[in-house]
Structures are given as structure tokens and as C-alpha cells.
Amino acid sequence: QVHVVESGGGLVQPGGSLRLSCAASGIIFSIYNMGWYRQAPGKQRELVATISSGGSTNYADSVKGRFTISRDNAENAVYLQMNSLKPEDTAVYYCNAKSAIFGSNYDYWGQGTQVTVSS
Predict the structure, then answer these.
(1) How does strand 10-12 pair with strand 113-117?
(2) Separation of CA 5 from chain center
(3) Of 38, 61, 75, 117, which has the most beta carbons under 10 Å away?
(4) Measured between alpha carbons, how far is 107 from 21 in angstroms, rounded to an integer?
(5) Nearest residue to 76 via CA among 108, 8, 30
(6) Are 107 and 2 in contact (CB under 8 A)?
């Protein structure tokens, strides 16, 4: 059974930092492309950052230079370091694990963790 679990959300003041963690189990983590997405109230879910199985990263323009995604295959974990947080970063952040194996697509989501940036 596959489990994807996010942690590390919370309330932070503008300009502050948070580090989100995502632990995945039940999959061969190293072959999965991992990503962080977010959904603010009344808005669609949007991509924040992705990291491929090979370590290549991609960021939304709105977070470039402020957020860093990383992964630890030994720990089956992916992280999102968020610095210089802004109120517009407030959202539920979701972890995603995605892979295509032998012609089948696999796509798993966590339950999300709330990040609130407010003074």
C-alpha cells in the first residue's frame, strides 16, 4: 500500500522560513519524479516545484530564488525549503509522486499540509 505523508506546515510571519517534508512508502522511491503543489482558497492547484528521479529540478516563477526542492532517496523523502515567505504563499501544500513504469502511469498524492503566512 502506498502512503505519501506531508509534514512541516504551520503559521509563519512574512519573510520567515519553513521546511516541508514528504515521506513516501510502498513505492520504489528512487524511480519516482516528486513534486510539491499548492492550492490556495478559491484557486486551482498549481505546481510549486518538481525534482526528477535523476535530480533535475523545476520551479514555478513565483517561487524561484526563494524555494528549494531536494530529495533523499535513502530516506524515501522529498523536502521543500521555503524562504522569504510571502502572504501569497499561503495555501495547502501537497506532495506528489509520479512515475511511468512498463507503460503504466502511477500518480500518488498526500493529504496536504497547511502553510499560512501572516503577521
Answers:
(1) parallel
(2) 10
(3) 38
(4) 18
(5) 30
(6) no
Mean pLDDT calculated for residue range 49-77: 97
Nearest to 89 by CA among 58, 65, 118: 118
Tell me which residue has cell 512574512. Answer: 14
pLDDT grade, residue 10 (50/70/90)?
very high
* 47 to 93, 103, 110: CA distances (angstroms): 10, 24, 14
**Model confidence at 7: pLDDT above 90:** yes
Dmax over CA atoms of the chain, in Å, equals 49
User: Residue 82 has which C-alpha cell?
Assistant: 521555503
What CA–CA distance (Å, rounded) separates 91 from 93? 6
